[in-house]
Amino acid sequence: MASTLKEWKDKTICVVTCDGRIIIGKLIGHDQVQNLILNEAHERIYSEDTDVEEMPLGLYLVRGDNLCVVGEFDAAKMDDTIRVPEPLPHIYQQQM
Amino acid sequence: MLPLSLLRAAAGSPLLVELKDGTTYNGRLGTCDAWMNMNLTDVICTSATGERFWKLPSCYIRGSAIKYLRLSDAALDKAVEDEKEQAQRSPAGRGGGRGRGRFDNSAGRGGRGRGRSGLSTGRGTGAGRGRTAAGRGRSGGRGPATQTSSS
Amino acid sequence: MSTSTEKTTHRKESILELAKMMDTVVQVKCLGGRELKGTLKGYDDLVNLVLEDCIEYIRDAETQMPTDRSRKLGLAVIRGTQVSLVAPQEGAEEIANPFVAAEDDE
């Protein structure tokens, strides 16, 4: 467990941004407003019909405003076959 | 390393900025400031849908509108170098925030101002740390404070 | 003091570019999604802008994307807090996808 980002410095972390992207990268720096520098970053893209895709991003700077969740990342615990479930239909469609 | 020092080191190198509205701007970083406001040159703007593209000779982007930035690896190397250089120039490193000393009290501004400008040369990244009470206290205790009492 | 000096120099550098844009036509994007065009007549440190002969691009009701239709606002002051992007109109043009070639290389 880590209570501050400092403890994750130089470790690979997983970031969920406000727009729902999942970004993995090595945390090489951060500041008081949680702007993060991620090195060798890549985005994990989950989809309905294919396995998880990884999109390389390189050196990445995420603005603190845009952060949602930061977590430790363990590649061994990753399951690349996970699919995103179909989105729920609209409520008015169910009623009809 | 601080994100803003990385950004400062990235001046002149190519950069991709995505704004909160989803549009992306590809360009060369000109200048940037402490609020992450920046100037880009030779910009290619891509709409949020990724269908339309515009070429802009330059643009000014407000830091608060940014979602994320993608930088070149060369920028990281440069930032690491700059950091080393900085450490060599001011081994204490933490002297930074003396600059805030002027908020202690209103008297003796001139004297302290002069004192600080002497101290301030050659340190950049340490700026702003002096917001802490300790930092302020130190600044009061420096030479300029005696000037205050004498004036 | 030096901190603030440092900030102002940075700010000045940034603002300098706005000085270059004085009396030229600029495009402005606002945080809410509005897009404006007008002649830059003035600005301040907070990036409040004065635009003359300002037009606002009308947005599509569904996509919220600005269209080519516009409405006239005339002389307008844009509050700095809402400004997200300022770019000169001169030299700006819509182009074909410049990244296609790069993607083919990969």
From TrEMBL, chain A:
The keyword Nucleus applies. PROSITE patterns: SM. SMART domains: Sm. Its main location: nucleus. Residues 1-76 form the Sm domain. Signal peptide: none annotated. Transmembrane segments: none annotated. It is found in: Nucleus. Coiled coil: none annotated. One of its GO terms (biological process) is mRNA splicing, via spliceosome. GO terms for molecular function: mRNA binding. SUPFAM superfamilies: Sm-like ribonucleoproteins (SSF50182). The keyword Ribonucleoprotein applies. PANTHER family: LSM1, U6 SNRNA-ASSOCIATED SM-LIKE PROTEIN LSM8. Plays role in pre-mRNA splicing as component of the U4/U6-U5 tri-snRNP complex that is involved in spliceosome assembly, and as component of the precatalytic spliceosome (spliceosome B complex). The heptameric LSM2-8 complex binds specifically to the 3'-terminal U-tract of U6 snRNA. Belongs to the snRNP Sm proteins family. LSm subunits form a heteromer with a doughnut shape. This is U6 snRNA-associated Sm-like protein LSm8. It comes from Fistulifera solaris. The gene is LSM8.
Automatic annotation (TrEMBL), chain B:
Residues 2-75 form the Sm domain. It holds the Pfam family LSM. PROSITE patterns: SM. One of its GO terms (molecular function) is RNA binding. GO terms for cellular component: spliceosomal complex. LSm subunits form a heteromer with a doughnut shape. This is U6 snRNA-associated Sm-like protein LSm4. It comes from Fistulifera solaris (Oleaginous diatom). The gene is LSM4.
TrEMBL record, chain C:
It is found in: Nucleus. Pfam families: LSM (PF01423). SMART domains: Sm. The keyword NAD does not apply. One of its GO terms (molecular function) is RNA binding. Gene3D superfamilies: 2.30.30.100. Its main location: nucleus. Residues 13-92 form the Sm domain. This is U6 snRNA-associated Sm-like protein LSm7. It comes from Fistulifera solaris (Oleaginous diatom). The lineage of its organism: Eukaryota, Sar, Stramenopiles, Ochrophyta, Bacillariophyta.
